[in-house]
């Protein structure tokens, strides 16, 4: 469940947050097409008037959830990345944080990565925009790693796209089947991706030892 509600929120903010939380539950269990606004209203214990005050349609709340997940993931990633100075360490931290967040918010991941696929132009544009945001984060930190000499020079745009593709495949498989768990995937995925950007075996072992 998303941490969308707390006692510090204003009453109107809390109502919106309750509706969003309910939408995660309903979309994740029923899927986009089978979900009705009435289902979300019932789950949130609010009213149709409240729903339509915040969200003009089912599509609007679905897109809001995709944005919510993307913002949550980006903020958490940047917080952890900014605590590090070395480019290659920042890349490793980003990978670990990304999988941890996906593991924590499976319902949101299912909505953002699975259900947003094939639902029309608006959904596809949103999914692509979110994907591009995280490709850019990966690329920025690969650029930093190249600049500080942590990794050899490479086409960081292509490398970032490849990394994002690998992450997507791991997470999509987990969302669909429940396996492999993101924490199980991390060591192998880290080793493969770090090798792909020229990190030495010795350096990879240091990461593995540090994160045991």
Would you write up a description of this structure?
This protein has 212 residues and is mainly alpha-helical. It has two domains: 1-56, Arc Repressor Mutant, subunit A (Orthogonal Bundle), CATH 1.10.10; 62-210, Tetracycline Repressor, domain 2 (Orthogonal Bundle), CATH 1.10.357. 76% of the residues lie in helices and 0% in strands. The protein is built from ten helices and no strands. Helix 4 (58-81) packs antiparallel against helix 5 (87-104) and helix 6 packs across helix 8 (156-177). The longest helix is centred in the middle third of the chain and has 27 residues, at 121-147. It is elongated.
Query: What Rg, in angstroms, do the CA atoms define?
Result: 19 Å
CATH class of the largest domain: Mainly Alpha
What's the rounded overall pLDDT mean? 84
Biggest sheet architecture? none
CATH architecture of the largest domain: Orthogonal Bundle
Task: Write down how many β-strands occur, each being a DSSP E stretch of 2 or more residues.
Answer: 0
Q: How would you sum up the global shape?
A: elongated
Give the helix tally.
10
Structural domains: how many: 2
| Spans where pLDDT lies below 50 across 5 or more residues | 5-10
The CA-CA distance between the termini, in Å, is: 27 Å
* CATH topology group of the largest domain: Tetracycline Repressor, domain 2
Strand content: under 5%
Helix content: over 70%
User: Which secondary-structure class do the elements indicate?
Assistant: mainly alpha
Please identify which CATH superfamily of the largest domain we are dealing with.
Tetracycline Repressor, domain 2
């Amino acid at each position: 469940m998303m941490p969308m509600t707390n006692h510090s929120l204003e009453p109107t903010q809390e109502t919106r947050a309750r509706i969003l939380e309910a939408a995660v539950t309903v979309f994740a269990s029923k899927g986009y097409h089978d979900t009705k606004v009435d289902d979300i209203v019932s789950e949130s214990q609010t009213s149709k008037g409240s729903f339509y005050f915040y969200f003009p349609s089912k599509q609007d709340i679905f897109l809001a959830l995709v944005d919510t997940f993307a913002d949550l993931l980006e903020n958490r990633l940047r917080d952890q990345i900014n605590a590090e100075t070395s480019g290659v360490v920042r890349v490793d931290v980003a990978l670990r944080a990304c999988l941890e967040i996906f593991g924590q918010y499976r319902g949101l991941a299912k909505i953002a990565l699975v259900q947003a696929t094939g639902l029309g132009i608006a959904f596809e544009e949103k999914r692509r925009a979110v994907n591009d945001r995280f490709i850019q984060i990966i690329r920025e930190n690969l650029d930093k790693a190249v600049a500080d000499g942590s990794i050899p020079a490479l086409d960081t745009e292509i490398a970032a796209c490849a990394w994002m593709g690998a992450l997507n495949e791991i997470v999509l498989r987990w969302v669909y089947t429940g396996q492999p768990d993101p924490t199980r995937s991390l060591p192998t995925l880290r080793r493969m991706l770090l090798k792909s950007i020229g990190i030495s075996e010795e350096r990879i072992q240091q990461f593995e030892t540090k994160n045991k």
